[in-house]
Specification:
single chain; mainly alpha; Four Helix Bundle (Hemerythrin (Met), subunit A); two-stranded antiparallel ribbon
Length: 210
């Protein structure tokens, strides 16, 4: 068994003054201030966007969702599947889930295009569960955890870097592939509506409508 070692577990660290928070440099640029609030925001946006895209995808037939539309992962269903798969791989690294030598991620994930769920409703249920896990885990992070090193093994190769690099990648990867799903839905004649982060923030600020 190969265990992916991580130092990210622990309770939520109380908010610190911004000028006292740990910083990380990237290249020759100015220091990047690490804030757990930023990643909590991205976790909310991830859930908000997934609900929108799955709701629109549900209007299509199963055949339409699985039609090869020339995307990197071919279809709407397969792209949504890859998003869930990649989140499982990364969350497994963050939480130190033990893996077999030939696994990329928990549950015997061996390839990035491996189908987790053929049934769309099952995929949606699993997506919601993963979004709950991401939101909960991000809520445990503080500046110290984000600046701490993450070390993991992928198919025998050891990698290590600050945790925040990989957390940032988690959310950036989601946005990249959700953009592909948005385009595929538009090409199929279904508009998912406004996808801007600002739209979510405005909605949160306005509160629930009466």
């Amino acid at each position: 068994m190969v265990r992916e070692d991580t130092t990210t577990s622990g309770s939520l660290v109380a908010a610190m003054p911004r000028d006292a928070r740990p910083q990380a440099t990237h290249g020759t640029s100015a220091p990047l201030i690490l804030t757990h609030e930023h990643y909590q925001l991205l976790a909310r946006y991830n859930r908000w966007m997934n609900e929108k895209l799955y709701a629109v995808s549900a209007r299509l037939t199963d055949e339409q969702r699985k039609e090869d539309r020339g995307a990197f992962f071919r279809s709407i269903h397969a792209t949504l599947n890859h998003l869930l798969l990649a989140d499982r791989v990364l969350m497994g690294r963050f939480t130190g889930v033990p893996l077999e030598p030939d696994w990329l991620g928990p549950g015997a994930i061996r390839s990035l295009d491996q189908e987790l769920y053929r049934d769309f409703d099952e995929l949606w249920v699993a997506r919601r569960k993963m979004d709950d896990e991401i939101t909960h885990w991000v809520g445990t992070l503080g500046p110290e955890q984000l600046a701490a090193p993450l070390r993991y093994v992928r198919q025998g190769v050891v990698s290590g870097f600050p945790l925040w690099w990989s957390v940032a990648h988690l959310f950036n990867h989601q946005t990249h592939h959700r953009g592909q799903v948005t385009t595929l839905l538009m090409q199929a004649g279904h508009n998912p509506g406004v996808t801007d982060l600002l739209a979510m923030l405005r909605s949160e600020a306005e509160g629930p409508k009466a």
